[in-house]
């Protein structure tokens, strides 16, 4: 069993896209820090497996809730499941995202465009608005949106995704004011991380980008997102709201 530090003892954290990649590392870190955790993703089997694994590692209560965050009715069901099981939610991490490939900008279908904006922006808005209002009533809370450096430095291969993530950065600033002063709203803006998605990257092109464009000269390890996620979830960030925290090895010129 992993050591529980108690940094987030007594708190409940909801992490969307929490069964793999950065979301999994965040959920795992929160459980190890003493929080009870809800992980949400589209696949029920993955939710159940991760919930069981984190409970086994940390001894914390972990609930897996299969959810398509691009659909508001499923977002609403997720919120009700969290409050029915735990009675409160102290930390919301809007991490779920998608960026499907396309041949050219003019070939992007309406269906693809709508799906990308739904998962990356529409769903996070719904969850943040519903849970944020309850956090205000409870007198505290932290909402953490996981954006991307594409929001400020987009490539030709991720235009709808970049639009959605730019909107997520803007939403952070807006909701930080809407839910102030009880609730803090911040964004983590990752660069190129070596998650399972990176396995599809061309090795030669990736090595070239790291060498030429990333001052750190490498991609991020998934566990390197944990420090920021713990900081923004905990009382250590009590005077931090409306912020965009760039974690990208120095890749993006702009900060958000």
Give descriptors for this structure.
256 residues, alpha/beta, 7-stranded parallel beta sheet, globular, SDR_fam
List the helices and strands and how they pair.
Layout: E1 12-16, H1 21-32, E2 36-41, H2 44-58, E3 62-66, H3 72-86, E4 91-94, H4 110-138, E5 141-146, H5 159-178, E6 183-190, H6 203-213, H7 226-233, E7 244-247
Parallel strand pairs: 1-2, 1-4, 2-3, 4-5, 5-6, 6-7
Helix pairs in contact: 1-2, 3-4, 4-5
Beta-strand percent range: 5-15%
What would you say the CATH architecture is?
Answer: 3-Layer(aba) Sandwich
- Name given to the CATH homologous superfamily: NAD(P)-binding Rossmann-like Domain
Number of helices: 7
Shape: globular
Taken in chain order, the helices and strands follow as EHEHEHEHEHEHHE
Largest sheet properties: 7 strands, parallel
Question: How many domain modules?
Answer: 1
The first-level CATH class name? Alpha Beta
Percentage of helical residues?
40-55%
């Amino acid at each position: 069993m992993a050591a529980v530090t108690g940094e987030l003892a007594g708190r409940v954290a909801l992490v969307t896209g929490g069964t793999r990649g950065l979301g999994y590392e965040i959920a795992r870190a929160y459980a190890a820090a003493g929080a009870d955790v809800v992980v949400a993703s589209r696949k029920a089997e993955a939710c159940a497996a991760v919930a069981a694994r984190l409970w086994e590692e940390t001894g914390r209560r972990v609930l897996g809730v299969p959810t398509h965050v691009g659909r508001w009715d499923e977002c609403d069901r997720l919120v009700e499941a969290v409050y029915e099981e735990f009675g409160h939610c102290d930390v919301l991490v809007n991490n779920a995202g998608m960026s499907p490939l396309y041949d050219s900008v003019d070939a992007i279908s309406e269906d693809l465009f709508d799906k990308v904006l739904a998962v990356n922006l529409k769903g996070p808005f719904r969850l943040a608005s519903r849970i944020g209002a309850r956090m205000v009533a409870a007198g505290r809370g932290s909402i953490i949106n996981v954006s991307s450096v594409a929001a400020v430095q987009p490539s030709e291969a991720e235009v709808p995704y970049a639009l959605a993530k730019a909107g997520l950065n803007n939403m952070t600033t807006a909701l930080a004011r809407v839910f102030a002063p009880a609730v803090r709203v911040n964004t983590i803006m990752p660069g190129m991380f070596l998650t399972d998605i990176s396995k599809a990257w061309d090795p030669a092109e990736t090595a070239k980008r790291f060498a030429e464009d990333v001052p750190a000269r490498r991609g991020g390890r998934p566990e390197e997102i944990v420090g920021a996620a713990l900081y923004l979830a905990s009382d250590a960030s009590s005077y931090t709201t409306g912020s965009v925290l760039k974690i990208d090895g120095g890749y993006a010129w702009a900060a958000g």
